[in-house]
From TrEMBL:
Cytoplasm recorded as keyword: no
InterPro entries: Ald_DH/histidinol_DH, Ald_DH_C, Ald_DH_CS_CYS, Ald_DH_CS_GLU, Ald_DH_N, Aldehyde_DH_dom
Provenance organism: Acrocarpospora pleiomorpha
PROSITE patterns, alphabetized: ALDEHYDE_DEHYDR_CYS (PS00070), ALDEHYDE_DEHYDR_GLU (PS00687)
Annotated Pfam families: Aldedh (PF00171)
Domain of life of the organism encoding this protein: Bacteria
Residues annotated as domain Aldehyde dehydrogenase: 14-475
Protein name per UniProt: aldehyde dehydrogenase (NAD(+))
Family in the record: Belongs to the aldehyde dehydrogenase family.
Recorded catalytic activity of this chain's protein: an aldehyde + NAD(+) + H2O = a carboxylate + NADH + 2 H(+)
Enzyme class, first EC level, given as a word: oxidoreductase
Lineage: Bacteria, Bacillati, Actinomycetota, Actinomycetes, Streptosporangiales
Amino acid sequence: MEHDIKHLYIGGEYVEPHSADRIDVVNPANGQRIGSIVDGDATDVARAAEAADRAFRTSGWAELTPKDRAGYIRRLADAYVERGAEMARLVSSENGMPISFSRLVHEERPARYYRYFAGVADTLELERTRPTSTGYAIVRKEPIGVAGLIIPWNGPQGLIAWKLGPALAAGCAVVIKPSPETTLDAFLLSEAIEQAGFPPGLINIVSGGPETGQAVVDHPLIAKIAFTGSSTTGKIIAARAGAQLKPVTLELGGKSAAILLDDADLDDFGARILEVCLPNTGQQCTACTRVLAPRDKYDQVVELATEVLARVPVGDPADPKSVFGPLVSARQRARVESYIAAGLQEGARLTTGGGRPAGLEGGCYVEPTVFRDVSNDMRIAREEIFGPVLSIIPYDGEEEAIAIANDSAYGLSGAVFSRDVDHATDVARRLQTGTVGVDQFSIALEAPFGGYKESGLGRELGPESVDSYLRIKTIYRAGSAPSA
Ligand code: NAD
């Protein structure tokens, strides 16, 4: 079925765009066009920003109690669930995510995120008083206004929910700019938004590419930007937003390390390699694509990883048996292949993969790939590849393992494997990274998620994430605070 989406979602209506430009949507599993979307321009973004600003100022949303807002967010979760199965299929056809994984990520989880943020809203405290040297102060948190949410293609609905949930809980209005690869699903979400009955204009969707995103960042009525995407784009956004002193939350790239300590249970690691090191065919920011192995166990670890990766079922994302699918686009495949060539040129050796899988020539597939003899100064160890490529690096002694893990421009995730979980936790404390797992890596929505260094600024998830959609006002009063 082709989805040609000719409209934008602005002011609670599906509206004709100002821009006449369109972008084709192509299924990366077979190269077939599955639809097209509007490439919105600055006029379209301005319309959406104005509608959001109007809703923020006049709809009464910002004045509702957070508990009342929670009711709407729960209705959004319910409306999402009705479309969950269709959402999982649609995203899988847009970005090549294997359907079994897409069901997990796009059918069930976003509704869970919305329910979680409704729960956070239920108990959100926005005003407190405290004594001061001159009397007392009312310290108040107010919604920041209109937030611009800029989304990547690799897990679109989850990453929208991470932003939309806390933005709504805080009392903000939003303009969502999805990635051009995954915009069809955003217009399925708009149906759920309609059904939930939000005030018109509170949530707007403007599709398009980088220039549309830039217009969102630049628009003066948009008071805050929440962005997930590459570090390169994140820096551009931070600079442009900085020119207006506009706050940003940036969830960016990674090149994380999984450290196998001397006493790690290698069988357990073998069972978790795909989930920790190469989730979503390696197209996930948290992928621990550097595996650090003690030198005396190096060959054993290489053999284990090679054996697991060589057996991964790669194929049509619509087939529930496929564990890896294609990369999102021919461009992304070319990028991954250029890294494989760079690894070979710098002296790393392939133990499996490196090419294109036989029989899947119509799609953007790359074989699951393992490199051995990798040193941490090679490009394949320093740069984010965003594909199914694992680099295994030997180390001598725990101090060196920690130094190698920390020797990265990034700091998003990480994992430490050891039979001694307290010791592994101590090692985790020394890693320069925003999140790290012991004997696993799995994001939990109740705790803050985000990066150090070039992996980002600010945090999403957890109750803390609501704060980035709020600003603080202090009201000074004389005398002593009335007792509650
Ligand atoms: P990208 O940076 O190219 O694009 C992300 C979004 O930004 C898209 O919607 C795009 O249209 C828009 N955009 C591009 N240029 C822009 C500009 N100058 N101004 C405003 N908007 C602009 O990233 P991508 O290729 O879509 O996604 C992959 C990247 O995202 C990877 O680097 C990955 O690590 C990162 N990522 C990070 C997280 C995280 O939470 N840290 C999660 C998923 C993906």
